[in-house]
Amino acid sequence: MNYFFDVNHWLGNDDHCFQDQEDSQANKEMIKKIRKRFDQNNIKKCIITSKLALGYDWKTGNNSLLNTCLSKSMEGIYYGLVLNPDVYFRYDFIDYLKEAFKSDVRLLRIFPRSQLFYLNDHYMKSIYKILSEKKFPVMLDLKQLDITGNKYFDIDVLDKILSKNTDMPFILETTLKQCMFSRYYFPLLEQFKNLYLEVSNLLLYNQIEHYVEKFGSDRLIFGTNYPNLPIEINTARIDLSDISEEDKENITHRNIEKIIDEIEID
Amino acid sequence: MTKIKIKEEIKEFKIIDSHMHLGEFANILTYKNDPEEIIRLEKRFNVKKVICSSLLGIFGSPRLQIRDVLDAEKKFGDYIGWQIVYEGNQPELSLDIIESYRQKISFVGVKIWSVGSSLYLDDKKYYPLWEYAIANDIAVSAHTWSPFTDNPKQIYGNPLRFENVLKDFPGLKVILIHSGGKIDFYDEVIELAKKHDTMYLDFSGDCFYPPVFKKVINSIGSERALFGTDMPMMDIRYHIANVLAADLPYSDKEDIFYNNAARLFKIK
Predict the structure, then answer these.
(1) How many DSSP H helices and E strands does chain A contain?
(2) How close is the nearest chain A Cα to the Cα of B210, in Å?
(3) Which range, of A6-20, A31-45, B247-261, averages the lowest pLDDT?
(4) Alpha-carbon distance B111 to B119, whole Å?
(5) A102/A79 Cα distance (integer angstroms)
(6) Which pLDDT belongs to residue B1?
(7) Where does A121-250 have alpha helices with state H?
(8) CA distance readout (Å), B251 to B11, B126, B197
(9) Residue B175 pairs with which residues in a beta bridge?
């Protein structure tokens, strides 16, 4: 296994003091900290998302993240933007996506429960259609489909979206105990080849081995969910997994690299 | 390679897994959930002994657990130290089972799951157990969880209720399984443990937080934190990494991985 590509790395609210003056001391300190973290854990590439965009406001957080210019300062850094239906209402979405791509955005993340919209919202349908045409990846936490908060997931809505947008790579994150409810997403993994699972929080005994055997290693994508979880537990889990080196390579970086390479933005 | 050279570092430690299970978790799919496979994985990571309770006993029936225990003893001998499940709503039956079998199996203690019994941890139905445990110098493991979560039943696992129990039963050896289960609740649990030196903390579960071990050791010393996995619910590899990633001296990790459990469960 050569290296890790972390698709699920967060920049905390306070870190957004880091702004677009590349020479500032704050910038240099931040880059030093991130470099150290990556070197210690053999992370060569990652997609960073803003906590501010999730917890406060998507536009403010996304813009603040892009203004950090982290991707210009460090090779292998990409951005994940938080997206909700308002983006379609406010912008020409194709132009928005092209601009985002130019700024090293390679993932869109949606949080319907936290940000109060229906996953298959009227505007979201149009967004998914464009993302499918452009083969642009989207990531969703299964917990966001747990409307009651008691682990009963509105999985049919995801089925509908995947049925209509078969070229949109869809990465499903399964935080904490949502990972126990594989019965919800197993049928979708069997049916839709564009559905992937992010591996942080696949905590059950032998769960990674199980999924590789059942669906193949090309359906799993490495992520850490840092700083919500320590990086080391996820890197160590893959290091120690009972799967082949080829499978480890697929999970740790090849699958997400392939998805990114296949994005079709002019 | 990752920061933790886990393959190399783990060889330096012997381990007691002070919290694992055999059997089926209710309503959860686990892969290759056969006892041989689970024990193979434990041994691969230098686990010298496991402390186990039967899932059939926890989720099903206190009487039926004995069938599973005896079957597993035939296969694994004393590699497994058994905790017999005490069901709070059947105190007489539970104590009878414990008393009948503790000399016949590799018995190390008692396990309770108050959430399943819908009983608070200071419910009087547990009092016969506390009396028995003190009289026989037996440690009791209790599932604990923060009451401030989505799942309303977890209120029955609130570990702060042990404040009342330990007033009535000073010296009771109790293990707080999961230590309250949530990072934002650990501080209160550690404060409780500071006051009771027979209280032990187990950090198995799904909240990985390496700094917790330093917090515990700074507050109550290195002798009351236990390594547990909750296998086959959770995978042992996460828990090993969680301890190895903690900023602690080697001797403290030895205590967490092995020494504390060996002393508590009287393992030679």
Answers:
(1) 13, 8
(2) 8
(3) A6-20
(4) 14
(5) 11
(6) 40
(7) 122-134, 155-164, 182-191, 207-215, 231-239, 245-249
(8) 15, 36, 20
(9) B141, B200
Q: Are B241 and A204 an interchain contact pair (Cβ–Cβ within 8 Å)?
A: no
- Residue A180 CA to residue A162 CA, distance in Å, equals 22
Instruction: Indicate the number of domains in chain A.
Output: 1
Summarize the confidence of residues B210-218 as an average pLDDT.
93
Token readout for A67 is 């203004």
Structure token digits, residue A126: 């149009």
Ranges A148-162, B112-126, B195-209: which has the least confidence: A148-162
pLDDT at A23 over 70: no
Amino acid at position B247, single letter: D
Between A211 and A181, residue with greater pLDDT:
A211
What's the pLDDT score for residue A17? 57
B3 close contact with A: CB closer than 8 A: yes
* A142 within some domain: yes
Going along chain B from its start, the domains and CATH numbers come out as 6-264 (3.20.20.140)
Q: Are A48 and A75 in contact (CB under 8 A)?
A: no
Is it the case that residue A18 has pLDDT exceeding 60?
no
The nearest alpha carbon in chain A to B205 belongs to A203
Which domain, by its residues, includes A245? 4-261
